[in-house]
Structure formats: structure tokens, C-alpha cells
Amino acid sequence: DVKVTQSSRYLVKRTGEKVFLECVQDMDHENMFWYRQDPGLGLRLIYFSYDVKMKEKGDIPEGYSVSREKKERFSLILESASTNQTSMYLCASRNSPFRETVSNQPQHFGDGTRLSIL
Amino acid sequence: KQEVTQIPAALSVPEGENLVLNCSFTDSAIYNLQWFRQDPGKGLTSLLLIQSSQREQTSGRLNASLDKSSGRSTLYIAASQPGDSATYLCAVSGTASKLTFGTGTRLQVTL
Fold it and tell me: Which among B34, B49, B103 has CB closest to A42?
């Protein structure tokens, strides 16, 4: 089974802090994704990476950056946290052996990090 | 811009009943459609993925269909059980790996 592990289930930070959310997958997947989930808005894509050191903006990248230095790890960075970034953050990975940007393999999700910015 | 709608937002059924969850999308130029399950406070579990060239996929008591031309998919759950209680999400994949999600149907199966 695919295992996607997010470093924290719950996290509380203060406005203006730099926040790091970590995600690790154990299946050697090429593609990795960061989403946020908000009531009434569903899941929205923040950033994705289809290979090491590669990244693409999703629908709501403002206020976020990402890092993918190793294949198994994809980090989401909140440069200066704000209260409107309080949310549930979900990481996902997907097998894409040909490093294609579109794939018919399913995305596999971690359990999420519930982030509160005070 | 792709929009995905799931109706109803919530559904309660007695155990043993067969049920259908609906998903509609506005842009039929999709690559695939995926159904997920989400338990409270948890991440998403992939249930079924239907490629754009396929009409349906089955896994155990679950059957998902896709009518791309009309922008619709259904998830059929046979002989529902209390353990099926969860939120069910559908998501469509267009170009560039983006999944666009619906807001889900919250299902409760009662004893």
C-alpha cells in the first residue's frame, strides 16, 4: 500500500511566522501535490511537482512556495503566515513512470495537517 | 473553468439499501474522473478511477459510471453498511495534472 505521511496532524502558528509543512511518500512516485480544504470550497490545488526540483503553480499559489529536493519529500512553505491560511492541508502523490504531466494513475493522500494561524 | 457539482450534499439511508451518488461537471474535455472517500478529520482514500475512454469501473460493492458527453458520473453503492458512512468526493482531471473537486456528499448509513 502507498503510504503518504504528513509530519503533523495539528499545528498552531502565529501571524507572520514562516511555516513548513512536510510530506513524505514511500512508493517512489514522481508526482506530488499540495491541496488545501475549506468548508464550502472543497479541495483546491496549491502547487504540484511532477519530478524532483520541478514545480508548477496550482489554482491558489499566492502566499505559498514549495520545495522538492528529494523524490520522496515535498514541502509546503508559508512565507509569512496569515489568518486566512488557517485550513486543512492535504498532500498527495501519484505514480507517473514516464514523468508525464497528465496520468491515469490515482492520487494517494496523506491524513492531512490541520493548521491554525493565530 | 471546470466546475464540479455533487448532489445531494447529504444523504441518510438505512443499512442494506442500494444508493446512488451523483457528480456533474461542466467541461467534458476530461482525462479521467476519480471517486474518493473521506472519513472525518482524515485524508482521502481513492475508491475508483475511470479513464475518459471507459464507461464504468467496479470494485466490490462499488460501481462508478461515466457519461463524458453529458458531464455526469454516478457512484453506486450496493447493500450499504454503517461502515460506508463518510463523505464521498468526485474529482475530474483535465490537463496539467489538475484535479478539480466537488464539495462532496456526506453519507450516513443508519442501523
Answer: B103
A103–B97 C-beta distance less than 8 A: yes
What pLDDT sits at residue A45? 93
A11 - beta bridge partners? A115
Are A89 and A112 within 8 A, CB to CB?
A: yes
Rounded average pLDDT per 10-residue block, chain A, 118 residues: 88 97 93 93 92 90 96 96 97 78 80 96
- Bridge partners (DSSP) listed for residue B57: B64
Please give the torsion angle defined by the CA atoms of residues B96, A27, A106 and B79, in that order, rounded to the nearest 10 degrees.
Answer: -160
Q: b/e for A20-29, b at 16 or more Cβ within 10 A? A: ebebbbeeeb
